[in-house]
Amino acid sequence: MAYQYELAYVKSIGALLLMCIVIDLLFLSKAVTPMQQRKEHSVKDQLYASKHSSQMSASEIHNHLQALNKPGVKTILSPDGDTIVCVPIDQQLAFDNPLLRNHKIRKQPPSLAGAGVSFTNVKASNQFQQLWQLAGNCPEETIPVRQAKKEDLLRAGSVAPFARKPPENNETLAQKHEHAIAYTGGQYYGAQASINVWKPEVQKNEYSLSQVWAQAGTRQIDLNSVEAGWHVDPALYGDDNPRVFAYWTNDSYNTQGCFNHFCAGFIQVNNNVTLGAAIPYSTYNGAQHEITIAIAKSDKWGDWWVKIGDDFIGYFPAEIIPRLATGTATTLMWGGEVYNTRPSGKHTKTQMGSGVVPYKGYRHASYFTYIFYLNATYYLITPSNLELIQEFPNCYSIGLSPVSDPNEEKSFYYGGPGLNSQCP
Ligand SMILES: *[C@@H]1O[C@H](CO)[C@@H](O)[C@H](O)[C@H]1NC(C)=O
Ligand SMILES: *[C@@H]1O[C@H](CO)[C@@H](O)[C@H](O)[C@H]1NC(C)=O
Ligand SMILES: *[C@@H]1O[C@H](CO)[C@@H](O)[C@H](O)[C@H]1NC(C)=O
Ligand SMILES: *[C@@H]1O[C@H](CO)[C@@H](O)[C@H](O)[C@H]1NC(C)=O
Known about the structure:
Elements (H helix, E strand, L loop, with lengths): L12 H4 L24 H6 L11 H11 L5 E4 L5 E6 L53 E5 L3 H7 L13 H6 L1 E12 L1 E7 L10 E10 L7 E9 L1 H4 L5 E7 L8 E2 L7 E2 L21 E8 L6 E5 L2 E6 L5 H5 L2 E11 L26 E9 L5 E2 L5 E4 L6 E4 L11 E4 L9
The structure holds 2-acetamido-2-deoxy-beta-D-glucopyranose (NAG) (4 copies).
């Protein structure tokens, strides 16, 4: 599985800071009065498990939206069409989860003071800007939440229950979930990487994501997985913009968990990053964009925190992920995943990464770099034993290779075009 690439290492850090989308500064924010909180207990109680939308009537969809979209103190209309509502931190959706009714918000992310390699010791830029930030900001003690739309719920029936990855079973694992990933097994307190961001072509009803996973438990039974990265998911959002996300499940993707704030689980404490909002992406032979993602266990409470860019933005509370909360992650993974529906038995043109094969290298193929795990004393360590998984290497593949720095061994290029003569 070893690949030898000829690579260009030259990399302009300045270029990373350039927005590839230039838009006018439109100050569209306006204050709205908090809506009357609805008391739809039957709907509310279902929110910790998101419901299959194809079984929902029009009024159920209406109620589900009312319950998902918590009232806020301010509404911001993003230039890309998203509506962002600033929801008071203690009134966010997560607290509708029965397991979190008595939860006291924890504002102390994992302390990484002892880290041998500091989180800021990366050469690439951590900075990223979300389009909505050009139109306003959320006050302290609130969190920006992208509102779910009626169309989002209506579309969802065709792929999977709303805002959830399709369950992993023997059939979907063998046929539909396609990966190009690096993984390591052991005892870990967290994972980090800087991920190149692109806008792959994605077929309707499929998705393409690039992310970090931390997992514990048993596959197809009680696998706990906490995940974060960027994805293109037209079924979920109605467009093909790359967006930043966080994901969790406590039952191997079966019935529990979801992306972002689309079900009651993730607790956000940061007022500046919107999960599910679009981020700048790279262009072929042009400016390159990265996001730095970390997922790390809180030593005190057992929560798993998500860091996006410079900030720990929130956490998956210990209550909803018992296997990860009471132990360590036993598997970490970094890389790409495509959900391929194989209509009429053929592969589709859904791309992974940049859509380009790994050997094309920098500014062509997508990459992960500065890959670390966290050990028990919160040091970032370069993994020495990465193994690769690529179920359909003629469709999507991965090759370990230096990216940012010729001496940095734990980086890789990954991705591919999907349908081609070798991937029918
Ligand atoms: C909010 O995020 C943007 C983009 O990452 C960053 O430039 C800005 O400094 C952040 N503001 C605060 C208050 O953290
Ligand atoms: C899935 O496959 C594994 C290994 O091949 C097998 O042990 C297991 O019984 C299968 N599960 C189901 C539900 O078919
Ligand atoms: C996952 O969490 C739900 C509550 O949110 C609980 O009912 C279920 O038993 C858990 N599943 C597993 C496999 O731990
Ligand atoms: C974590 O790594 C650091 C740096 O290599 C090392 O000093 C420390 O002993 C490690 N902690 C554990 C628990 O192995």
